[in-house]
Design brief:
Number of strands: 11
Low-confidence stretches: 435-473
Distance between the termini: 105 Å
Strand content: 15-25%
Radius of gyration: 28 Å
Structural class: alpha/beta
Mean pLDDT: 84
Strand order of the largest sheet: 7-5-6-4-1-2-3-11
Shape: globular
Helix content: 40-55%
Largest sheet: 8 strands, mixed
Length: 478
């Protein structure tokens, strides 16, 4: 009897163990199936990105082979907001005054004459007396971003003869055909705006420079002939009448992002914004890891407030690719070290995704050579990094996206802002753009006559005299 009872208990235990093992095997098969489906989606996603980049390359080569026609004519005004000293600032500004467009004028905008950019602008203007130039002193912004405030002040009163408005950042280095190419894209009435984009060109080799160039290039190549493009605020143009009829200046009030707000207004109007490859501008780059990550987080945080669907999509796509690749690589290493037989499955997935990344990077490098055929050795090394270290750049990009999911404070050109629901921006504190030079101007010798010395977060109480012209050719917003 005792033997019979013990045998019965042992039988039940064996049956329980076999059932548990069977359920574990079934659960493992389910997870393996889920993993393989996710891996397949990641591979398809990578192939689709390659197709988009290849289409971008085809589009760019076709545009560059085609002769740039003269296109429309009419007075154009370039508007350039400046704050502080960008890398190669004077050389960047020189390119603004070397455009081969027949009839244009340039309007620079600064926060104050104490800004070191003001002195650089004056030197640049002094070298090209044949181009009509003026400087707007906009004062400090009490609400909204300083850049948006500068643009609103500069567009408060426009000369009657101006037909086109072109906007460019002070860190952009333009080709002579830049303005002609932008204005030429506005030939069709259903096109509201023409835009270029930025390609970072590192001035020296460093991990931070290479990472930022690689991450930025991913987004630069998302533009194409048919993809719904965003307007990029550092290189775009619009017809003056349309700018006024859409009330872009009013839409900018109190906001931080000039380009995402412009994109939203144009899209709601039912008109199109188009990408022009000849307006891809080089931007000199020399940064460190902390500033690189701060830049990425700021860009994504602004997108979260002004283009939430796009930000959410970028978060999902980038994180999904990161999790599948790095998860596969980690699983393959662990399984191999543990002597498990399935190690080759995640290893094959990781190898496939890495091969796609390398191919994508190689195509990107060929596109970079189309845009910058005279690239130096530093830029060539960046292209090699872009090709072979794509997963690392993707990991950093994903971390920046995740960090932008929380918080609402950011620092942009020395000014700390708080973002509110709806996109309203509140300046909290600022560093003086002139540093010691600003103190010397105010305390070491008298400020220039007729120029109001701005105080912390003090803004013009009214805009009646925005267009008052001083005898020096400088406009001042009180």
């Amino acid at each position: 009897m005792l033997f019979s009872a013990a045998a019965s208990r042992n039988g039940k235990e064996c049956h329980y163990v076999r059932g548990k093992c069977k359920r574990g095997a079934e659960m493992g098969s389910v997870w393996l199936l889920i993993y393989l489906v996710a891996a397949g989606i990641a591979v398809v996603q990578g192939v689709l990105i390659i197709a988009q980049i290849w289409e971008h390359r085809r589009f760019v080569r076709g545009r560059f082979r085609r002769l740039l026609k003269k296109g429309r004519s009419g007075r154009a005004m370039l508007l350039i907001p400046c704050r502080g000293t960008d890398l190669g600032l004077e050389r960047n500004l020189d390119t603004l005054l070397q455009q081969d467009y027949e009839d244009y004028q340039v309007r620079f905008i600064v926060e104050s004459e104490a800004d070191p950019a003001y002195a650089a602008i004056q030197r640049v203007i002094g070298r090209r007396a044949d181009v009509r130039c003026e400087v707007i002193v906009a004062g400090q912004a009490s609400c909204g971003g300083q850049k948006v405030h500068n643009l609103r002040m500069a567009t408060a009163e426009l000369p009657a003869e101006v037909e086109y408005l072109a906007f460019v950042d002070s860190d952009a280095r333009l080709e002579p055909c830049w303005l002609r190419a932008l204005v030429g894209k506005l030939d069709h009435d259903d096109i509201a705006a023409a835009t270029g984009y930025r390609w970072f060109v590192p001035t020296r080799g460093s991990l931070a420079n290479w990472l930022l160039e690689s991450i930025n290039a991913n987004y630069a190549l998302s533009f194409g002939p048919k993809t719904p493009g965003f307007i990029w605020g550092g290189s775009w143009a619009i017809r003056r009448k349309l700018f006024e009829s859409l009330d872009l200046r009013g839409a900018w009030e109190g906001t931080l992002s000039d380009d995402l707000v412009a994109t939203r207004v144009v899209n709601r109007s039912g008109l199109r914004s188009v990408f022009e490859p000849r307006c891809m501008v080089g931007s000199p780059l020399d940064t460190n890891l902390r500033d690189m990550f701060s830049f990425l987080r700021r860009q994504y945080l602004i997108s979260r407030y002004y283009a939430a669907p796009w930000w959410a999509m970028a978060l999902v796509v980038v994180l999904f690719a990161d999790v599948v690749f790095w998860g596969s690589a980690g699983w393959a290493v662990w399984a191999r070290m543990a002597g498990r037989g399935e190690w080759w499955i995640p290893a094959a997935v990781a190898a496939s995704l890495y091969a796609i990344s390398v191919l994508r990077g190689q195509i990107r490098s060929s596109i970079a050579r189309l845009y910058f055929p005279d690239a130096d050795d530093v830029f060539r090394r960046v292209c090699r990094f872009d090709a072979w270290a794509g997963p690392l750049a993707g990991l950093v990009n994903g971390a920046a996206l995740v960090s932008s999911a929380v918080g609402r404070h950011l620092v942009w050109r020395g000014i700390t802002y708080r973002l509110h629901v709806g996109g309203r921006a509140e300046p909290l504190r600022r560093d003086e753009p002139g540093g010691d030079r600003r103190d010397e101007t105010e305390h070491g010798r008298p400020a220039r006559a007729g120029v109001r010395k701005p105080h912390m977060l003090d803004v013009a109480p009214a805009m009646e005299s925005v267009a008052k012209r001083a005898s020096t050719g400088t406009r001042q917003s009180p």
